[in-house]
Amino acid sequence: MKSYIFWMVVLVMAALVPAVPAFSGAGLGTSADPYQITTYTQMNEIRNGSSFYYILMSDINCLGEPAWEPISQKTAGEINFQLDGNGYRISHLLVSGNYGDAYNTGAGFIGYGQNNIDKTIFLNVTFYNASVTNTFSGEANAGVLVGRLDGAYGAYNHDQTLADRVLIYNSSVVTPVTGTTGFTGEFAGSFSGGYIDCAGYNNTVPNSSLYRNGGIAGFGGGDNAYSLAKNIWTNSAGVKLFGTSTFAGSINSSYWNTDAGIAGYGGTGKNTTGMKNASSYAGWNFTSVWKMSQPDGEFGGYPVFQWTYDPVPVAPVAHFTGTPVNGTAPLNTTFMDTSNNTPTEWNWSFGDGVSANETMQNPVHTYTSPGNYTVSLNATNAFGSNTSIVADYIRVFPSPKPVVTMDTVC
Questions:
Q1: What pLDDT does residue 311 have?
Q2: What are the two backbone dihedrals, phi and then psi, of residue 206, each rounded to the nearest 5 degrees?
Q3: Which residue has the higher pLDDT, 154 or 384?
């Protein structure tokens, strides 16, 4: 009888536990078959099952999407997903809000969490034009990847890696100018764990205290049982590698730009000429991990990862095609971007005043009314933009009226 009651209680408790929404894309969420992310919506589903493996299958452009709500675990528990960027980039991630309470605060892709496992959270990914703002007036931690990440129950983490081969550039992380207890950084506000192979370029990380903001993290904590940092660099203006650190482990082969930043905790300072010289990066792998970017390109001759797209430093020349370009209403036309010099952003005008899908690379547009429509495409990359306009490109005819015959009348 006791066994029966026990299993009845188990079944009732199981029924009360809310089901975790299924991932809407392909994959099983395992290390061998990760969930495959192709859209912003699917990336947002990471919060529904944060112990799984995920992989990007395309660039994720967050422009026009809702602001990102940080993935947070404010009570004892672990943030232990893995997001493999697969060489793709996440652009225009927007985090903005009041993220704080008396103890656990943070704004970023991850807000606050604990982690004490050996899984790398972010790897092989670029964050471009991210904007992270924490308006909390107390301990306002903020970083593009994480606001605050601790080991289990606030202890230092010996095994877990936050970022491996992660590039963050042209992004901003902002906390209140009156904040004196929080930390800001390109990668993390406050982090107790190790970094490996990371780069921060041309970012903005303001904070009221120079000891609380850093090119990599405002605060990095640890002990000498493991490496806090290895093979990382930053050249963002006004910041050093780390703002401050407590009981830190070793920081090896890591650099900051003395012409852009200021002296701080950890790493080796060298001038711009040295930062653009591969031979000055002691122990770095420029065969299979790093490469030097084009001197006059988007990354200004600094190191980037082998998989980083390093575009030719010229603006796009916009071109496009549409299929079909004429027919009766409603007419569904598929537009294809055929621009030269690899644009990274697109803005279409379909001529009928309807703006849906206007920022997609290859949108589908429906014309509901007869008429001639002028179509334009503005293509943009880091070096400029160009617009192609084709007058009366789409011709939509009225739908034919039904033929009335005598047989129909009778």
A1: 81
A2: -85, 145
A3: 384
Sign of the torsion angle spanned by Cα atoms 307, 308, 310, 315: positive
Residue from 322, 327, 333, 300 nearest 395 by CA: 327
107 neighbors 141 (Cβ within 8 angstroms):
yes
**How far is residue 80's CA from residue 75's CA, in Å, rounded to a whole number?**
14
Pairing of strands 188-191, 146-150: parallel
Cβ atoms of residues 172 and 131 within 8 Å: yes
Distance between terminal CA atoms of the chain?
80
**DSSP notation for 254-265:** -EEETTTS---B
Q: What is the pLDDT of residue 406?
A: 59
Q: Can you tell me the distance from the alpha carbon of 254 to that of 248, in angstroms, rounded to the nearest whole number?
A: 14
Q: Which two tokens stand for residue 153?
A: 């129950």
Q: How far apart are CA 150 and CA 303, in angstroms?
A: 29
Q: Is 349 helix (H, G, I), strand (E, B) or coil?
A: strand
Q: Decide if pLDDT at 373 tops 50.
A: yes
Domains of the chain: 22-305 (2.160.20), 320-397 (2.60.40.10)
Beta strands in 92-154 (DSSP E): 94-97, 110-114, 120-128, 131-134, 142-143, 146-150
CA distance 227 to 225: 7
367 or 64, higher pLDDT: 367
What is the rounded distance in angstroms from the CA atom of residue 329 to the CA atom of residue 399? 6
Give helix then strand counts, H and E, for the chain. Answer: 4, 32
User: Is pLDDT larger for residue 151 or for residue 111?
Assistant: 111
| d(C-alpha 202, C-alpha 304), whole Å | 13
Closest CA to 320 of 358, 372, 353: 358
Q: By the 8 A CB rule, do 79 and 111 touch?
A: no
CB burial string 329-366: b at 16+ within 10 A, e below = eebebebebebebebbbbbbbbbbeeeeebebbebebe
